[in-house]
Amino acid sequence: MKKLSVDDLSAMRKELKKKKGSWIRVGCSTCGIAAGAKEVFDTLKEEIQKRDLKSLEVKQCGCIGMCYAEPLVEVMIEGMPKVFYGKVDKDVALKIVEKHVCGKMLLNDRIYDAKRSR
Q1: Does residue 117 belong to any structural domain of this protein?
Q2: Does any domain span residue 30?
């Protein structure tokens, strides 16, 4: 396997941005895990499976710099804006699936602005 260059990584990033679809990412870095991200990740995976939402992928990711808001969940549902939910616990994770994923409604009281944290 060849060593990836900055140009290779940029091309990969552009290609990923072109892909459509729905997904959920849970911040599972050290700070996220310490705040309860593992339980949130497991809850989301179980609920997505229970509801038979096969096209929705739940993934783990690293830190994005908002440790104060952990556990963080990033949600991208096709046709809706991509959002970050902060201070997510098991109950909020269930609401994310019920209201955001299935009901196409944002949970405004849990949305964090990732651009402001940087």
Answers
A1: no
A2: yes
pTM strictly above 0.85: no
Quote the CA–CA distance of 40 and 34 in Å, as a whole number. 12
Q: How many Cβ atoms sit within 10 Å of the Cβ of residue 5? A: 9
- Structurally, how many domains does the chain consist of? 1
The mean pLDDT of 21-28, rounded to a whole number, is 95
The CB-based long-range contact list for 91-99 (8 Å cut-off, 24+ gap) reads 92/40, 93/40, 93/43, 93/44, 93/47, 94/43, 94/47, 96/24, 96/44, 97/44, 97/47, 97/48, 97/51
Q: How does the average pLDDT of the chain come out, rounded? A: 90
Tokens representing 116? 């402001």
